[in-house]
Amino acid sequence: ASESASLSEKHCTEMVKLKPHEKRLLRKVDFLDWKADNTLREAHVLRRYHVSRREDYVRYNKLVGAITALVATLKAKPKEDAQRAEITAALLRKLYAMGVVDADSSLAKAENVSVSAFCRRRLAVVMVKLKLAETVKEAVAFVEAGHVRVGPDVVRDPAFLVTRQMEDFVTWTDTSRIRRHIAKYNDKVDDYDLLRA
Torsion angle, CA of 136/142/147/151, rounded to 10 degrees? Predict the structure, then answer.
């Protein structure tokens, strides 16, 4: 028993000799500071808003970073600067028109823009908000199947960002079975629609 204990102690004190290519790989990795520390938040947003492509999340994150950097440079300028006032007003108007901020009143609203704000403007999430679908997952299925149009165009991408102005034009396509089913339920089926079906 004492021999096995001394063998295990010997194994614990001995480090495994790394091969040269393993040493090179480990040089590039910092075990104390991970780049992907925010993965829990990312996973929560991806799951909540049913974002199927991680690239969309990365794109929204870069947009938020660019907006935050722009706000920081604007805040560094003096308040009386005409250029600051002009750029601030344009930024807030744009963010409000996109639906990312609630009001175009102050720069603090633009500073607090998050990835979730962009995700809430995705077509599937807007459909749930407009009560066209019960869940975001169901709305994604409808969009991918081609049942939804924004204005005259059929949209098949659930990542389509809907602005405040376009929000009123989100509806079912004319040939959609769901539209026909809703009309039949409300006793508003047009005879012409029945002939086309």
Answer: 20
Tell me which residue of 76, 113, 62 sits closest to 91, measured CA to CA. 113
- pTM, to two decimals: 0.73
Q: Are strands 153-154 and 170-172 parallel, antiparallel or unpaired?
A: unpaired
Tokens (6 digits) for 147: 């049942």
Report the alpha-carbon distance of residue 192 to residue 83 in Å, rounded.
58
∠50-37-51 over CA atoms, to 5°? Answer: 10
pLDDT by residue (tens digit) across 143-191?
Answer: 999 999 999 999 999 999 999 999 999 999 888 888 787 777 777 777 6
Are residues 170 and 130 in contact, defined by beta-carbon separation less than 8 angstroms? yes
Residue type, 96: Y
End-to-end CA distance of the chain: 84
More confident residue, 65 or 174: 65
Amino acid at 181: H
